[in-house]
Amino acid sequence: MMFEHVIYSCAIAIFVGMVYHRVTGRDYSWIIILCAFAPDIDVAANTVLKNFGFTLLFEGHKIYHGAFHNIAIMVIFGIAFAFLVHPFGIKFFDALFFSMIGFAAHLFEDALAYKSAYMFLWPFSSKIMGIGLLPEILSEENYSYDFFRIANGEVLVIGLLLLLVAIIIRTYLDGPSWIRYYMPDILYEKFFRKYVVSSGMHER
Ligand SMILES: [Zn+2]
Q1: If 130 and its partner were Cys, which of 60, 75, 117, 175 is the partner (CB 3.0–4.6 Å)?
Q2: Per-residue DSSP letters for 82-151?
Q3: Is the pTM of the predicted complex or chain greater than 0.90?
């Protein structure tokens, strides 16, 4: 799963951003989409370290795919991310919240897809868990990329529907101006603002 993570994370970001914005007046939910691949860094970490001649041990084992798919790495990642973006004017808590949600969203998506996925609750439990909503997908090994070899068609269609529902609900409740939180200001001013304003719903 790669492309699917982007779609599902977009849907989750739009919902979470809507609620967070209502509470705080701020929306950095683009961070959720940015972090959509974060747990899969374990694949890259292993390759990169191997090239440098290192073998990093994680709980006494080599880093394998899925090693970062747990709540311990989620917290470490969130804190590191928050420090990293703090100089750019993003409040520590905002960055921590959205990056951990982004990381958790990836874990949740993997769990939805795979019946036996990863040790999500490590270090509290070493049980390999998963929800596995689609009966034909058991784990990552038998995941089929039947949509142009980039995604699983079924998983993708469900994700696109969720994304559509998220867009419709947020636009209905907030008006279309929420789109501004997913792009740099300059891009919004140049291309989107006039449409949002002409819809008459920008100040909702
Ligand atoms: Zn994953």
Answers
A1: 117
A2: HHHHGGGT--HHHHHHHHHHHHHHHHHHHHHH-SS-B-TTTTT----B----STT--SGGG---TBTTTB
A3: no
